[in-house]
Amino acid sequence: MGEVWQQGIVGGASVWLPDGSVRTVEEVAESRLPVLSYNKAWDTRPVRYGANQGPRDHSVGELVPVEPSAVTSAEVEETLSIRFVSGRVMQVAPGQQWVTQRRRGRQAWEWKRSLALVPGDRIPLSLTAGRFGRKGTSDEGYFVGAMLGDGGMTSCTPEFHGDPEDGAVSFMRTFAAKNGCGVREIPQGSIVRLRFPYLSGPRNPLTQCLRRFGVWGQSCAEKHLPEEAFSRSFWVGCISGLIDTDGHVRVRRNPKGTVHGSIEYASVSPVLMRQIADALLRFGVTSRHRVVERRSEQARWVNGYRIKGRRPLNVLDVSRATALVRLG
Asked: What is the pLDDT of residue 5?
């Protein structure tokens, strides 16, 4: 159950603003904050066949800032969960209106309520809104992304674990040197453990960087980025750092011999996974989110702790050809 507003927006839902920030729908309604909206109406004329019907407009316009004209609260009613092909799940009211495109015939736009939607309905949500803020550089983004992937941010000194011959480790060495930090490398089998102590002064610049971007002190299952307006360069670096650490490139060949590729990113943090999926959509990259249960019946001992089961693994999969090209 949840409180729903005009047009079926659930109370407490996050709204993406033109400056790249995120606010709750209550904040938007109270302060009349500008939101993103299409600058043209969809061509929802009734479908008629025959001569002299005129061309059908299949475009959806551009996203522009628009101030809400009116806000009306509604009664409390049961909400529905709608999952999009990107893996994003939205909580909506049964009466929420959606514009959809017919898959056959003239492919006209038409309005449907949430209860009338069926799997496969095409809903025009923009994938290339391109709304970014100004906070962060590409190097800072890569550092934060790599630390969210294979970093340790809960002790006194930041740590990073990786292949000593890998590009991520090489970047960490250079980034630490630029910020006046030392690098202590501790071999651990096939990987190396990097610690970044500050050479002089009371504060570690790398720790301050992680604090500035709101990720210092996060454990594995709680890893996430703050809802701030990061720059496009920061997101490019952050996604690169995440994929370089916890990503995987998979190549498959079907019985006909056709090669299919995919890029996957895995994390035990569902919040971080949703944030990355949303960031990819800003670049026009669609993805699919699935959850892999990893329960173990036999208990295991890790560093003196008894573990009966492991947390579910969230996997983000990019496999469509156009999405792979854009992500590359």
From this structure: 38
